[in-house]
Fold this sequence. Notes:
The chain is built from 7 helices and 3 strands. By secondary structure, it is mainly alpha-helical.
Amino acid sequence: MANKITTETEVSTSELACVLGITARYIRQLTEDGILEKIKQGRYALCASVQRYIDSRETMPEDEAKLEKAKRAAEVTLKTSKAHIAKMEADELRGKMHRAEDVEAMTADMIYTVRGSLLALPGRLAVDVAAAETPAEAAEIIRREVSLLMQELTQYRYDPKKYEERVRERMDWDTDFGSGDGEDE
């Protein structure tokens, strides 16, 4: 059977916050402002505290009430934003999401590799093409080398370890972080 609430019922800060629908931090602020009174360390008289809170809300100027409402809305927005950022960071650490700067760097690396391969073609083909007896034979030599180059490019695969390396480098983390070797420092 649950305890019956009386005029003598005492509650903790968090319990009073739950009853009033506000944060424990706001309870402490109301106590500092003299609106609520502790009966002893961290304890409040439930009935008296609820009544004092209601009285303070009724006498609160409209501007203050709007400001308080805006403050609570801002706190919710801030907490939501922090949770969203934490989720994105966790997704990044799990390799489920990549920052644009990491994707850009990896793409640039791939483009420089392709560029280097294309720039190396004339040197690799010069002797063979010069030895070709017909333009068609020269074209076939060039087509074959370009096909080989394109075949190499089709072998490119997403490598999560490369992205993980970039993240650790950007975050200036030790590369052994999370290796699971069980050693404590």
